[in-house]
Amino acid sequence: MLTGKTALITGSVGGIGYATAVALAAQGCNVMLNGFADPREIEEKRGALEKAHGIEARYNGADLRNIAEIEDLVAATECELGPVDILVNNAVVRHFAPVEEFKAEDWQAALDVNLSAPFHLIRLTLRGMKQRGWGRIVNLASALGVIAMPNRVDYVVTKTALMGLARAIAIETQQEPNITVNSVCPGAVRTPAAETRVAALAESKGIGVEEATREFLGGRQPTARFIDPAQVGALIVFLCSDAAREITGASLPIDDGWTVSP
Q: What's phi and psi for 176, nearest 5 deg?
């Protein structure tokens, strides 16, 4: 279905990003990974994609706070794998503090990585998509782009803005019959970041991981269970398929009903 397409996925050395890389590779996409992790772990994951799916996978460690490195990331993808057909804006930084205590540098980092980087990546890849008559752009927003939680101002604001960015570009590309721009809005997904927070909660309260998980998910997922990142990857694959060519400008929840719960 997507054999030979090139996918650039930011924040893709773990969690939702890597699950998306696996899902797209399984459909025949060549994949550019990006993010920060132990170099040996990155190489193992890159190699695993190639071995399991017979595709080409590369890695670029661009720091998305830096526009020049974003430009180099796109150029490297095009040089090593070909023009970008699928762009998945997944990279994220997050901080936790009430607004009056929020550090200015943390706010700027969130704007740079969570919002400005997706803008620049779309700016740099959309022209080629138009020239080739095919493209898929998916922004990883969040349930917290629809609702809010305290002490998460950077995350709530930037995830809300990502949905607006997708809608704005979708309007600009309405006359392009095979280019779509959408947002996916996951709830609480079992990612390394979430597992770290659960472990910290368990340690601070002297409780087991299972109990800490239930407490962490309380007020979030009505089902009291994490979403599998592979399910998010599968939704993104669908959005890249021909079956989804009429879906654009949408913000699609995958949150076990969190955002519609009373």
A: -95, 105
Q: Encode 220-238 in three state secondary structure.
A: CCCCCCCECHHHHHHHHHH
pLDDT digits (tens, 9 = 90+) for 67-76: 999 999 999 9
Lowest-confidence pick of 12-16, 73-77, 215-219: 215-219
**Fold (topology level) of 6-187+228-254:** Rossmann fold (3.40.50)
Q: Which of 194, 210, 212, 180 is closest to 143 using CA atoms?
A: 194
* pLDDT above 90 for 191: no
- Looking at the annotation, which residues are catalytic? 155
The pTM assigned to this predicted structure is 0.94
